[in-house]
Structure formats: C-alpha cells, structure tokens
What does this fold into?
Amino acid sequence: MNELPGSTGTSAGFALRLGQIIFSSASLLFMSFGVQFYSYTSFCFLVTIMGLVIPWSFALALLDGYLIIITCPVRQKGILFIIVIGDWLLSTLALGAACSAASVVEVLLTSGGSVCRPKICSRYLISTVFAFLSWFLSMASSLFNLWILPSF
It folds into this structure.
C-alpha cells in the first residue's frame, strides 16, 4: 500500500498538524489577549473551538512524529477511523466558529467604529483569518486520511 502524502504518519501530515497548532494558537492569542471577546457569543465559540483544536492537533502531531521516527504507518483501521471522525468533527466546528466570528467582525467593521475601536476590530479580524487557515489545514489532513481509509 502506498502512503499518501499528508496522511497520518507522513512528514507532510506532521507539517499539516504543526500548521494547525500554529494557526489555532495564533487565533486564540489574538482573540484573548487585551480584547474583551466575551462580549460576543461567536467570539467565545471561536475561542472554545480553537482551545479544542490545539490539543487534538498536538496529540496527532506527536503521533505523526512517533510514526515518522519508527518509520511505520498506521495500519489499524479503527485508529485511522477515529482520527478521521475527530478531524471532520473539529474541522466542521472550526469552520462554523470562523464563519460566525467573521460575520460579527464584518458587522463591527461596517458600524463605522462606533462599536469597537479599529485596533480591537483588526485583532478580531486577524484572529478570524488565522481560524480560517487552521480550518483549511484541518480539512486537508482530514481529506488525506479519509482518502487512505478505504485501502485498509
């Protein structure tokens, strides 16, 4: 069986997981520090989901790193199935959180600065962009793993 680049146990999969960790952490940090995000429910949802994506991606990055070191791919269908389900669930939640946060950012930006200062609104916007980037990498790794699942 040929390994698909980007699936679990490959260096591309490890890079995707590291990207998820970096973008999710950046989204969480830009939303949390010095900003009163708890005034808006969609921002709280984004912080919660990014708080779930970080440990999930970190655990799978550790698994990828271990599998790269021992040069052994995942051969158990059950483990790969759990990874695919977890990735699909978290990527769907991350997309929902990013979209809801983007809609609130758009409303805040079009209000003319009467609701939030431009510096704070730009932090909300940057956090939302990082959330979308994290979702993109999460969906990519999920699709790679889903692609390889039927070959077991």
